[in-house]
Design a protein that fits this description.
The protein has 77 residues and is mainly α. The protein has two domains: 1-42; 44-77. It has helices at 2-41, 51-76. The chain is rod-shaped and about 75 Å long. It is found in: Endomembrane system. Keywords: Membrane, Phosphoprotein, Repeat.
Length: 77
């Protein structure tokens, strides 16, 4: 009986640690999502219609897309 009690206490502690880690991860995801939403809400403005600036904006968009894809892949698996 005592062994069963010890086992249950250990499992509850493990579950608590897992839930705390999940809570931390969810908080990090909320922060990240807020940042991405703020980035996406900004209109794309070009100071000068020049190839270098267009390439820079495309690179920023690609970086955001890659970051987003990594987060989505993490959430799915």
């Amino acid at each position: 009986m005592f062994c069963l009690l010890v086992f249950r206490v250990r499992k509850l502690k493990e579950t608590l640690v897992t839930v705390q880690q999940l809570d931390k991860n969810m908080s990090n995801l909320r922060t990240w999502l807020s940042r991405i939403e703020a980035e996406l809400a900004k209109p794309v403005v070009y100071n000068v219609c020049h190839s270098d600036e267009i390439q820079r904006k495309l690179a920023e968009q690609q970086a955001n897309s890659t970051d987003f894809a990594c987060k989505v892949e993490f959430l799915v698996f």
